[in-house]
Amino acid sequence: DQAQPSLALKQVEQSHVRVVTVPGTPDLRAIDEKVRVIAQATHHEAQGETLRSSLRQALAALPSIPLNKRVLFILSHGGMTAMAAGQQTGADAAIRAAGLQNAMQGFTRYQPLSQEGVMASQPDLVVISQEGLNALGGEENLWNLPGLAQTPAGRSKQVLAIDDMALLGFSVRTPKAIQQLRARAEQLP
User: Fold this and answer.
1) Which residues form the Fe/B12 periplasmic-binding domain (predicted)?
2) Contacts with 102 (C-beta within 8 Å, 6 or more apart), sequence order
């Protein structure tokens, strides 16, 4: 879905290569459909059904009781400005699936971090990819981002370095990443 519309994909289709469209929606319900589509396209329906059953169990085991903790997801890769995940992002969907609150409200998509916005959001936990943390020069430099040191997460150094593709990809690895996020949030003071 996310590759559409693409000139390259159109050229591939025009050369009579079968193109299968896999849902790209950042939604837990989309994971089952992704597995079904891929299993069908690769003629592995039985294995796909086994995986789908396992995924349904993993999804059913996700926490259903909300936890009053605010999470700030920071997207940071080498050479780019650190960005905060707003509403209608994969990070927002994953945070909510963990029964937590996205600390960044009032905007959609990813926006550059601002001191005022970060301080107003008052996150209890900062989530960032390990690669993003490395790009910043490590955890000690994370707290130098605008306003972060003045938040509850910054004052108590509450950070979770996570596999961002597992968390944001809404794939077979996502339920485990969401469980990891929830478990870390449950450890917060």
Assistant:
1) 1-189
2) 70, 71, 73, 85, 86, 87, 91, 92, 95, 96
Q: What is the structure's pLDDT at 1?
A: 47
Average pLDDT over residues 45-57: 96
Sign of torsion over alpha carbons 182, 156, 158, 71: positive
Sign for the CA dihedral angle at 41, 42, 43, 44 comes to negative
CA distance 164 to 133: 11
- On whether both 182 and 145 belong to a single domain, the answer is yes
- CATH number where 49 lies: 3.40.50.1980
Which residues form the domain of 38?
A: 7-60
CA 69 to chain centre: 17
**Do 114 and 158 belong to one domain?**
yes
Please state the pTM of the whole predicted model. 0.88
54 shares its domain with 80: no
Tell me, yes or no, whether 142 and 169 share the same domain.
yes
Q: Distance between the two ends of the chain, CA-based, in angstroms?
A: 40
Average model confidence (pLDDT) across the chain: 92
